[in-house]
Structures are given as C-alpha cells and as structure tokens.
Amino acid sequence: MAGIVRTLLAAHEVVHVHDLDGWAGTKDVELYAKAKVEGFQAIITNDGKQLSRPLEVRAIAESRLHRIEYRTNHKHGGLVALGTAIATVCAALPHALDDLAEADGQRLVFLTSVDPSRNSRLRITDPASTPPRHWPISP
User: Fold this and answer.
1) Which domain does 83 fall in, by range?
2) Which residues form the VapC45 PIN like domain (predicted)?
C-alpha cells in the first residue's frame, strides 16, 4: 500500500516503517517518539486497538503526531481486504491531509472504510434479459 500512496501523494514523503533502517519491529510505544524525533508529522496505521492500550495512547499524545487510522475488513481477507484498505486510504487520505495542513494541533483521524460487500461494489447485467438503452436486438 505504501507504494500506491507514494504515487498518489507525490507531494508528500511517504515511508513505510520497514523502509527505514533499524525501524522494523519497533514497538508502537517507541515508534511514536522515534518518528517525532525524526521529523515525521503523521503515522498511518490499521491498528484499531492502539487507542485502547494506555501506554500507546500516552505515546501518541506525547508525540503530538497526527494519527491516521484505516480499517481493513478481515472478514473477507485476501484481495478483497487489501483492495478495501487501498480504496479507503486513497479516497480519504488526500482530504485528511488537507484538513491536517490547517490543523492548529494534533489530530486523530479515522478514515471511513468503503463497503466491500458484493452488492455495494458491483452490478452485473445480462443484456439479453435487461438490455441497456440502444442495445442491438437480435432477430
């Protein structure tokens, strides 16, 4: 996902924790402080449980970094979950960044997930039984 976000938000520096030397495996409690020292302004996460863990909440608050959370729908898993996460981030993150640029302090952002259910994501029509306008009729 980081590569896609990098492409779409070329004006911003987007870095995945695994791209930084020595950062992979860093616990969230330490990650926020480390990111602040290194000059990052925001962290994007799909860890919905961070805000229920007191030590992590304190680390987030003390870092003063913006925290942007997106959810993945693990019920579907695989390509559907990945596609939903990418769609959610790509659709909402530019708006979030615009708002954060105007913010006068730390913000907690929750990106609303797109609905991955079959009926909301696609429609299939049989042109033989429900032809669209101007569809040629077979003799």
Assistant:
1) 2-87+96-114
2) 10-66
CA 117, 8, 33 angle in degrees (round to 5)? 95
Residue 138: inside a domain, yes or no? no
pLDDT at position 11 is 86
Q: Is residue 123 a part of any domain in this protein? A: no
* Predicted model pTM: 0.83
Domain count, the chain: 1
Residue ranges of the chain with per-residue pLDDT less than 70: 73-76
